[in-house]
Amino acid sequence: MRWLGYFIGKNEHLQMLFISTIVPPSGASVRDVIEPFFRGVSCNKSIRTIEFISMDLLGGEVFTMLGSFFQNNHNLTNIKVFNCDFGDEGCRLFALAIG
After folding, report:
1. Which are the contacts of 47, defined by CB distance < 8 A and separation ≥ 6?
2. Selected residue with higher pLDDT from 29 and 14
3. How far apart are CA 96 and CA 60, in angstroms?
4. Which of 1, 34, 60, 96 could disulfide-pair with 86, CB 3.0 to 4.6 Å?
5. Rounded average pLDDT over 68-80
């Protein structure tokens, strides 16, 4: 997933990104897989819509990992979260990430 995040980050034409359930390989945690992926995604400045669908948002920490993406991507107009449970703390982290 690290390489996928890297190439998404370098892409200048990608307008929509849909992220769904992530199943880590044997012996890895979701965090081990998702953190390097989002590090790459955070470099993208062309995405207009990002959707999180039925995935583990790690209590909202995903939004913290994407903080620079939310702050530096001025093309972003839509953030959609479907069927994801991230609780009160996740809501707070989301609000902080989008500023």
Report:
1. 14, 15, 16, 17, 69, 73, 75, 76
2. 14
3. 10
4. 60
5. 95
- Say if residues 47 and 14 touch (Cβ distance below 8 Å): yes
- Looking up tokens 């690290």, which residue turns up? 2
Residue with tokens 């707070």, as numbered in its chain = 92
Q: DSSP class of residue 65?
A: H
How high does pLDDT run on average in the chain?
92
Percent of the chain with pLDDT over 90: 75
24's tokens: 């880590």
97 in Cβ contact with 70 (< 8 Å): yes
Buried b / exposed e over 25-46, threshold 16 CB at 10 Å, is: eeeeebeebbbbbbbbbbbbee
> Residue with structure tokens 């093309």?
75
Place of tokens 């909202």: 60
Flag whether pLDDT at 23 surpasses 80: no
